[in-house]
Amino acid sequence: MNNNTFVAYEYKNITVKRDSVAFYTDCLSNFGWVPVDEHEQTFQPTVTIAVPSVPVLTSTDENDRVSLKFKRDRCIGSEPELNKLERQCEEALASIGKLERKSSAYTMGVSLGTGLIGTALLGIAVYGFISSNIVLGVIFSVLGIAGWGVGFFSNLKARRKKATKTEPLIQEQLYIAYSACEQAHAFLA
After folding, report:
1. CA distances (Å), 24 to each of 19, 165, 177, in order?
2. Contacts of 49 (CB under 8 A, 6+ apart)
3. pTM for this model (two decimals)
4. E strands, 50-133, where?
C-alpha cells in the first residue's frame, strides 16, 4: 500500500553570519520551518541513505555570511498568529545585529581616529627630519608612535565600554525573540 499524501510547502531563504546559524535554525524551527536538506534539491535515487537534516549552507561572500534554506507546510494551523510572532522574532534578531554592528563601528572609529592622529604626527616627524630639524622629528616620532599605541588600547577600552552598554539591550531583544519562539511553539503543539 502506497501512502502518498500531497503536501504543499512554502520556502524561505535567509542570509546570516556563520556563527549564528544554529541560533537561527533553532528559532525558525519553533515557527514550523524545517531546514531543507541539500539532497532534497537534486534527483533522488530509488535507494537512499539516511542523511540527517542539516541546513544548506551556501557561502555568499568572503565576510563570513551564509544562506540558509527552510521549508514549511503551507497548510499549517494558526498561520496569521505564527507570521506575526515570526516577524516579532525577526525584528528582535535584526535589532541585535544592528546593536552589534553599531558597537563594532564605534570601537573601530575610536581606534582609527587615534591611529590617524598618530600617523599625522609621524608625517610631521618625517617633515622635521627632511628639513634637518632633528629635535622636531624625534619629538613628533615619539608622539606618533604613542598615538598608534593609544589607538590599540583605546580600541580595547571602547569595546569593553560599549559591551557593558549594549549587553542589557541585547538581552532584552533575546528575551523578546525567545518569548515569540515559545508562543509559536505553543501554537504548533
Report:
1. 10, 24, 11
2. none
3. 0.71
4. 58-61, 65-73
Residue 156 CA to residue 165 CA, distance in Å, equals: 15
Q: Answer yes or no: is pLDDT of 43 > 70.
A: no
DSSP code at position 172: H
Chain-centroid distance, C-alpha 141: 39
C-alpha cell belonging to residue 19: 556563527
pLDDT at residue 54, rounded to an integer: 46
Query: To 5 degrees, how large is the angle CA 112–CA 102–CA 88?
Result: 170
pLDDT digit string, tens, across residues 83-141: 899 999 999 999 998 998 899 899 989 888 998 999 999 999 998 888 888 898 899 99
CB 123, CB 82: distance < 8 Å: no
Q: How far is CA 31 from CA 13, 22, 82, 142, 183, in A?
A: 14, 15, 6, 59, 9
% residues pLDDT > 70 (the chain): 85
Task: Give residue for cell 544554529.
Answer: 22
Q: What is the CA radius of gyration of the chain?
A: 26
Give residue limits of the domains in the chain: 7-76, 78-189
The Cα 54–Cα 44 span in angstroms is: 17
Residue 173 · residue 95 · CB < 8 Å? yes
User: Both ends of the chain: CA-CA distance in Å?
Assistant: 29
